[in-house]
Amino acid sequence: MTGAGPGPVADGALRVVLLGRQGSGKGTQADRLASLYGVAHVSTGDAFRAAVKSGSSLGRTAQAYMERGELVPDEVVVAVIREHVFGPASPPGFVLDGFPRNLAQAEALEDMAAPRGIDVCIDLEASVDEVLRRLSSRRVCSSCGATYNLVSSPPKVPGRCDVCGGTLYQRDDDTEEAIRRRLEIYEAETAPLIAWYRERGLLASVDGTGSADEVTARVVSAVEAHRARPGPGAG
Ligand code: ADP
Ligand code: ZN
Known about the structure:
This protein is an alpha/beta fold.
């Protein structure tokens, strides 16, 4: 049974992968999609940043890679996903934000998510020029992780989070050099996943420009269009 609009589904909670360049708005849209459908928002970047802050051994491993704008090794990332998304205490549905990021991770996800698989992979499209503009003015709340853009969505009080009053900061990897490096890695390693998901009939490309609300409306229609189609196992 499929419902008429967004909401938890009877035949299995929503399972989505979000792809898109750094600065394409993945984090914001993943957050919104997860609350609309009542599923977990899983961001590997947020998980690593929290681990770095807490000084855990995972954090110490991840930190050096992240500061250089490089990928954390696959086995480390896959272990985190296996535990948080496919472990015994894991939520039934999820929006994956920042995973998978290369072919090996996509194949690992395919194995972990079998037999049901995922419902759809949304590719959030934003040009290099657009994301460079967004990233250089991105600020993040040090307490709750909410993101702001000094140009398009500034906080009400400069330097302070609207949600919790926390201090806003610029991520270490939002320097021009690290941004350039992350975008190169995206083109080389992550962008090929667009074709990989398309071949599997799981891809939906969504225009990531315009207001956050406009983008959310597009993302939700793409999700609904995919859920309305018979899955690979349906007869
Ligand atoms: P962005 O997409 O803007 O680079 P994220 O918050 O998603 O930001 O990720 C920040 C950093 O965390 C990445 O540059 C990388 O070092 C690490 N990271 C996050 N997800 C992964 C992943 N799936 N595989 C490897 N490294 C990752
Ligand atoms: Zn905050």
